[in-house]
Specification:
Layout (H helix, E strand, L loop, with lengths): L6 H18 L3 E8 L2 E8 L3 H4 L5 E2 L4 H8 L3 E3 L11 H6 L1 E13 L2 E13 L11 H20 L3
Antiparallel strand pairs: 1-2, 1-6, 2-3, 4-5, 5-6
Helix pairs in contact: 1-5
Length: 157
């Protein structure tokens, strides 16, 4: 069951995602919270966010974000399309390709409740040189995930 996030908390978390994206020069981020057998994109920032936030779910047994949720370990991949664990279902729905991804678990009150993702994308079929992430980008994402977890803890998730 997804928690109710009030408008003020939603705006605060949205701003955290937005500022984080600016810090690491990434256009896309999302907060995915666990709900029964899925991860559900609850908040997002970037050109694709409005097209999947609230109307998509990722099965917990599929994809890298589910692996990160289950393992509790952060992940960075700059050649995501060649990773067999990558699920392309959302890419296909949006008509894009994910080129690189960083993701880290979000904990609240000592329990993993979801993940935060940042992705570099391009138009499906593009041969452009993809953007990549660096180690310090993952460190920044872990910091953002800690902030998000503390905010969510304050509303008793």
């Amino acid at each position: 069951m997804l928690p109710e996030i009030d408008d003020a908390t939603r705006a605060l978390l949205q701003e955290v995602l937005k500022r984080f994206c600016k810090t690491i020069h990434c256009q896309n981020s999302a907060l995915w919270l666990s709900s029964d057998d899925d991860l559900v994109p609850t908040l997002g920032f970037g050109p694709h966010a409005e097209h999947f936030i609230g109307n998509y779910s990722q099965p917990l047994g599929e994809g890298i974000i589910s692996m990160v949720y289950a393992s509790g370990q952060p992940f960075c991949e700059n050649q995501i399309r060649s990773n067999p664990q990558h699920s392309s279902r959302l890419d296909e729905q949006l008509g894009i390709q994910t080129d690189a991804m960083i993701t880290t678990p979000v904990s609240s009150q000592g329990e993993i409740i979801g993940v935060v993702t940042c992705v570099h994308t391009s138009k499906a079929g593009s041969d452009d040189t993809p953007c990549s992430f660096q180690a310090h980008d993952l460190n920044e994402l872990e910091f953002a995930a800690t902030l998000i977890g503390r905010v969510l803890a304050s509303i008793s998730i």
